[in-house]
Amino acid sequence: MSRRCLPLIALPVLFLAGCDPPAKRYSDAEMNFFDAALPGMTPECRNKMQFGGIGAMPQDTDECYKTSLPRRWQGLWRNSFESHVFCETPATRCQIEPDADPQPVYTWIEFKDPIDPRVKQAAEGLYRIDFIGRRTVIPGNYGHFGLARHAIVVDRVLFIDRQDRPATSEPTSDRRTINQVQ
């Protein structure tokens, strides 16, 4: 009976002995650069990046960075092309100022799937928003081109209301709330 088991044991051992460890896409020195540029990345995400390349990194911030416990946030959300900036209350303005030096500190906002239909339908503009979300614990380089100090992952939208109107819109008396949670 022991002779019958020998091939069953030997075959997997020989197969595994011939396996090479996975090749690194980025050297340890390159990863040290990424560690400095992207502080707070989880070891699991760092490993995916080192062995799978930048394309292997998960897209969602909360899959690569430690976030706080969920809490309620209120403020302004600037929805524009390649920019989702959040400015916490009591902010009265919220925008990226490309010519400002130094750049103002702002927070990137991203919406967790499934994305609320009120957000999907939101045109470019400025919105007052109230939501439950989680912020990155460690300041870093988040969002488009890594320009934001923090990112907030929105788990649930409570309220959203457009604050500005396109130039072609009717007078402000026609202003409507996009939707409020009942």
Topology, please?
Elements: H1 2-17, H2 28-37, H3 43-52, E1 71-80, E2 83-88, E3 107-111, H4 117-120, E4 125-135, E5 150-162, E6 179-180
Parallel strand pairs: 3-5
Antiparallel strand pairs: 1-2, 1-4, 2-3, 4-5, 5-6
What structural class is derived from the secondary structure elements?
alpha+beta
Number of individual domains? 2
Strand order of the largest sheet: 1-2-3-5-4
Q: Output the radius of gyration.
A: 23 Å
Shape, per Cα inertia axes? elongated
The biggest sheet, with number of strands, parallel, antiparallel or mixed sense and barrel status, is: 5 strands, mixed, barrel
Structure description:
The protein is built from four helices and six strands, in the order αααβββαβββ. It has a five-stranded mixed barrel. The relative contact order is 0.15. Residues 171-182 have low confidence and may be disordered. Helices cover 22% and strands 26% of the residues. The chain has 182 residues and is an alpha+beta fold.
